[in-house]
Amino acid sequence: MKKANFLSMALFFLAVLNVAAFSQPFIRIGNVPLPSPENAGFGNVLAGLDLDGDGKKEIYAVNNNWSDTGAELIPTIYKFEFDEVSQWVQVWKAVLPIPKQNTWPALTTGDLDNDGRQEIIWGPVNFAETGNENPWRVVVFEQNPGQENLGIPDPNVTGNFLPNAKWTMTDQQLYNWRPFRWFVHDIDGDNTKEIVFVSRAVTAGGNNIGVMSVSDVPNTGNGSETWTMEFAGGGTTVYYDLALIDNKAICIPQSGTISVLRYANGSYTLHATTATIPNGSWNSAAVVDLNNDNVKEVLVASGTSSSSTSNRNVYLLTLTNDTVVTVKSIGNMTPHVSTTGILMGAKAGDVTGDGKIDFVMGSRGAAPTANITMLSYLGGPIDTSDSYTTQIIDTNYTATTTGRWMHIAIGNVDNEPALEVVYGEGTGLVAPLVIIDKTGIVPVELSSFSASVTDNKVNLTWVTETETNNYGFDIERKTANGQFEKIGFVAGKVNSTARTVYNFTDETAAAGVYSYRLKQIDLDGSFAVSQVIEVDLNAPFAFTLDQNYPNPFNPVTTIRFGLATDSEVSLKVFSMTGELVATLVNGEFKNAGSYAVAFNAANLPSGTYVYRLEAGNNIVTKKMTLLK
Predict the structure, then answer these.
(1) CA atoms within 13 Å, Cβ hemisphere of 604
(2) pLDDT tens-place string over residues 177-231
(3) Weakly modelled stretches of the chain, pLDDT under 50
(4) How many domains does the chain have?
(5) Which residues share a beta bridge with 261?
(6) Cis ω on the peptide bond leading into residue 253 (within 30° of 0)?
(7) Which domain holds residue 555?
(8) CA atoms within 13 A on the CB side of 269
(9) C-alpha distances in angstroms, 57 versus 242, 272, 349, 413?
(10) Torsions phi, psi of 68, nearest 5?
(11) pTM over 0.85
(12) For the domain that residue 552 is a member of, what is the CATH number?
């Protein structure tokens, strides 16, 4: 391309309707101490429940055996309830008559017998030895109406409670079978919910993938229930993760090569795939619908060892043809957990309150210690890292040892509507459950980010409305291999409540298409990245209005247009009844060139809209579809 073609070419990007934030600061708002006489960490946690319907939020947690001594050996479950005065109060517990348990039990909630009474389904892990030959491996505590208590009163121990239903899962003695993760789900569509599970250990000849069901959860706990193992397969492969979509179970082993269990035509089939999560995943898979298109995806945090850079990535899993799994890396968390750390445990939910999915992860061996990280969807194509931002949301709860901060829960655990993050350590640190919440204070408000091209140089301009502890901005450009690299730095104002305009010029650009983003860095070293803007230096000079992309969209789409001559420009959006709903460009003078405008329809209902471009004597309209 000749130099003259660059002189008046410009590409402009402006976020409208919303103010964009680089990062979402979180603070610790409370904790749930490990009850006495526990001497190890928690083994699993559920948060944000209200099973008894009294309006008070509940957290359920089970203990964990780490060092084979003391109270940690006896499987115990606790119910904590939120109180405005005392914060988290223990209101119920149950101790199982099992002499020894092992490590990392499965824990979930559901209604297995469809009687409207919610249940806690817990999998105390077997410790096979003489005197403990075939313990219960699944216990079900059902909520008692109008009471804090679950289960049935223990006739032998005053104040204790026993499960309404229980099962050993096998008749074999001294059998080692350790379910690690399970969910209640009607996988076979028979209107009876099953427990679908994966296991991390089983005696030779056994199977680490299974589906079991129960005929009833007796209110009286009289043992009248009948348990059925509907499916067992997968051999002795070690599985640490599981996700369920309709009639399919996505099973992720330690090796990372995925298997899919599918129910169809009256039977279960376990399908091998070639899809792989490098280094596997640890209790992190979360089923989501990122772009609200009614198609479910799975987010997975990779990591069961720290042998390669691959094990610190977040992956997007999509299913096609029932058993074909596509794996796409959408986020590299290495900058947040270091090359010594790995990702352990994760949950998904809208913890930032922006209507989009956030994926919160724990860690092991991170530097600094106890890093809790988050990947947030920004909108746009779900299979590219450009549509996500990452950050640390808590760190250094304890600096004395790294630990395994592997228990993550997301739920509303107080009396305000936003979701909180609850996390805990899973070894022997005797650490509490830590509760963190978004502060609502945005340290850096980014109101616009634009690019223009003149004289073979790309000029980047961005505007902040406020800044708190802002060290500055790395400017990053995508390389030919698809990775972003730093090409410059601009210092921030540190603290400012005034509007600030920043500029940076990339003098190395040649003809081509370039993608840029900003990496905002706080004084403490934490950072977050902006959305990506694209500069097309090959665009022709012509009057054009492109179809918005993506379309349909939710809630952000980009409208591109071209100007053959310098013109006054208006770009407006109308409803199908002719009502003006947004003005994106309002009679502004623009040079000939190519432009792009981001339209955020977060405040509009689903439907078809018309966008109209006016430039000089030229008028053109197109339709677009908002699908929430």
Answers:
(1) 26
(2) 999 999 999 999 999 999 999 999 999 999 999 999 999 999 999 999 999 999 9
(3) 1-21
(4) 3
(5) 249, 270
(6) no
(7) 544-626
(8) 8
(9) 27, 41, 17, 5
(10) 65, 30
(11) no
(12) 2.60.40.1930
